[in-house]
Amino acid sequence: MCGIVGYIGPKEAMPILLKGLHRLEYRGYDSAGVALINQQGTLNLYKCKGKVSELEHFLTGKDGSGNIGIAHTRWATHGVPNDVNAHPHYSASEQIALIHNGIIENYSLLKEALIEHGYTFRSSTDSEVLVNLIEYIRTTNGCTLIEAVQQALKQVVGAYAIAIIERNNPDRIIAARQSSPMVIGIGGEGEFFLSSDAASIIEYTEDFVYVGDGEIAILDRHAPLRIVNHDNHEGRIDIRKLQLSIAQLEKGGYPHFMLKEIFEQPKTLVDCIRGRIHPETFEVKLSGVIDHRERFLSARRIIFVACGTSWHASLIGEHLIETLCRIPVEVEYASEFRYRNPILSPDDIVIAVSQSGETADTLAAVELARKAGAFVFGICNVVGSSIARATDSGAYIHVGPEIGVASTKAFTGQVTVMTMLALAIGREKGVLDASLYRTLSQGLSTLPEQLEQLLSEVAPRVEELAKIFTYAHNFIYMGRGVNYPTALEGALKLKEISYIHAEGYPAAEMKHGPIALIDAEMPTVVIATPDHTYEKTASNIEEIKARGGKIVAVVAQGDSLVRHSADYVVEVPVVHELLMPIVVSLPLQLLAYHIAVNKGRNVDQPRNLAKSVTVE
Length: 616
Ligand code: M6R
Description:
Blueprint: E1 3-8, H1 13-24, E2 31-37, E3 43-49, H2 52-58, E4 68-74, E5 89-90, E6 96-104, H3 107-116, H4 126-141, H5 145-155, E7 158-166, E8 169-178, E9 183-186, E10 192-195, E11 207-210, E12 215-220, E13 226-229, E14 239-241, H6 257-263, H7 265-273, H8 287-290, H9 293-297, E15 301-306, H10 308-325, E16 329-333, H11 334-337, E17 348-354, H12 360-371, E18 375-380, H13 386-390, E19 393-396, H14 409-429, H15 434-469, E20 474-479, H16 483-498, E21 501-506, E22 523-528, H17 534-545, E23 550-556, H18 562-565, E24 568-572, H19 580-598
Helix pairs in contact: 3-4, 4-5, 7-14, 7-15, 10-14, 10-16, 14-15, 15-19, 16-19
The structure holds 5-amino-5-deoxy-1-O-phosphono-D-mannitol.
């Protein structure tokens, strides 16, 4: 959470910083701020509560000149979202300005020590403690800024991506990282960009250096990029090429990124399977599996670690792998896994699933699994992200940048990769029936067309349904088997963007408690597509009807049973039951979207949330 951006070079920094902040706003939007050093050597710092657009308004008439600057968009951790707690933070003497993404865990101890040395604090943030610690070391030891940063960071426990500028040092930005993402873009001579996410600065360069944990980067307009560690040992500069189309970062005529991303899914599925499913033979090839064939064949157990939507996708992955590969699977919340001393062995495969590739808990779970000797496979979207780099092998989902905070195309991309993974492993292990293999791989290949058709048919219907349910206070989502996680995901979509309370349940669990909630005010969305539990789900629907509940059923075309008991029906194409979660998710995403729009919610930037959760 929090987005940081920096610029040093020949151009005016402000437009670059503001554009970067807009692109990083998905990481947090509680407050925004910039600090720049102008030609006269003045360090100007402007910040305010609210979104980047509010900062832009606030900047009107102010001196925003300078060709070195840092900027921040905040997701509050320590200290309420207000002007004072906004970043950048000045040091006490206002000589140094700092931006920070992460959490300094031992900040109160450091703060107490600084207070004893006469420091006072304006904000309640952990970040202001760090900038003052740097200043304290710099002034008391009489050392350089870089030495002060090195010494300060040795005392810090926690996660950070920081960037610092100093009034008397207008030719340098010092940046450092531990666990929070940071990338440096190399521009023309003496020109560097810095960001939490390469996509935010992609129009200026294709050359990126990912700063590693424990590394400090020195961006100096008169020298090549340098990376050192806390003991001043030089690090290697590994420049990677990254190409991304700017159009992918724009709304492209849609009112919200979320809607654009929902409608992109037919195409993102094509991108996801391209080169992985042969268009004629329907053979599935995943290089991450081919390169580590023996590890997959000898796997005793597979453990998924993930959070949020990626965790829901992993629950679907569990069904896919257990069914198609006959390997036992566990699915863990990364945040729980990392703190409960899990039993791991070298013949376990841990699969880390993360759209952003930066989720702090998932990254920590990866590190723990690797230390325990497990083989770690990543399923990420963001190319070059921390999790993608920390894993032994992996498969990108290739769905392009997902900007809406609510995950949509990443979910279907993750499930698609998991399906291909299960097909590839099951085939290699020889446990997967050839006709089922073919049905599923061919089914995946034809899914994009079916999704295209589905969207055109179902979108107007769901928009109408959303009008009926906009003012419901609670929702239940029900599904069974592989569609139980789909129900969980549908409920999460609704709650995170509309702020309506929604719960997902395995349909048969209703009788064990939740059915007490059913009355005429409680809509239930039921996934009732054909599989071996279909009739049972139909009975569960009757039980809800008998208690006066309203039913919205997602059924397959041609359904003749459930349509008679449901109050409202949404039809999806008939596909194999293991592919159904991908198909069913689209109307559920649209339902959440339209209800949220009807309620006037900020769909792309829902309250209290951030796209990339880089703090635990
Ligand atoms: O980037 P990740 O996939 O690791 O993110 C995990 C969750 O934070 C994320 O899926 C979150 O639940 C989404 N907002 C859901 O739409």
